[in-house]
Write a structure and sequence with these properties.
This protein has about 190 residues and is mainly alpha-helical. The protein is about 65% helix and about 5% strand. The protein has a two-stranded antiparallel ribbon with strand order 1-2. The mean pLDDT is about 90.
């Protein structure tokens, strides 16, 4: 397993295996140097829903938070989100390949980890604290905020309502929408 693509394929294959070796391999791949592999490992751990993955997922979130990001470069063209219209990304002169990869990564790994934590369904104080923080963290990519809100809905804890109420006012539509859906789920469970 040399290329990142092979490692990603390994993650996908191990997502449905319940054996210990697959779990151990996925946890190791969650710390891979390539963000695409970390992303695939988080998705595979979401599929497995193994509560033992909570601590490694939280550690991976902290590592992602420490990783450098690169803000949105100028885009040519007027494509809206989800559009198939071609556009070009223009990076400032002198932008390193590492910075370009940081832009490509943005919040994708954090988003996948938040969704995995929600799918596992164990609302520990550490999990809730992380998701509460990301649900309203304006410095995070909107996909991270939206994923945190969705995960909070899956965990359905009443103490999340004040955070979700704040997130429901987010200017970014996906985040606000996921927050409102999570609020409805929690209120429905409260009766």
């Amino acid at each position: 397993m040399n290329s990142y693509f092979e490692k990603m394929e390994c993650c996908a294959a191990q997502a449905s295996n319940a054996d210990e070796a697959s779990y151990t391999s996925l946890i190791a791949l969650l710390g891979d140097e390539n963000w695409r592999v970390r992303y695939a490992a988080a998705i595979a751990l979401e599929d497995r829903r193994d509560p033992r993955a909570i601590a490694p997922l939280l550690q991976a979130l902290q590592a992602e938070e420490q990783a450098p990001l690169f803000s949105q470069p100028t885009l040519e063209g007027g494509a809206h989100a989800g559009s198939n219209i071609a556009f070009s990304v223009i990076f400032p002169p002198g932008t390193t390949d590492e910075s370009k990869e940081a832009w490509r990564r943005r919040g994708r790994v954090m988003q996948a980890i938040c969704l995995a934590l929600g799918a596992i369904g164990k609302p520990s104080p550490a999990v809730l604290a992380a998701l509460h923080r990301y649900a309203i963290a304006q410095e995070c990519d909107y996909a991270v905020r939206a994923a945190a809100c969705k995960a909070l809905g899956q965990l359905a804890q009443p103490e999340s309502l004040p955070i979700l109420t704040q997130a429901a006012r987010d200017e970014e539509w996906c985040t606000g929408c996921e927050a409102r859906k999570a609020i409805k789920i929690i209120q429905g469970k409260m009766g």
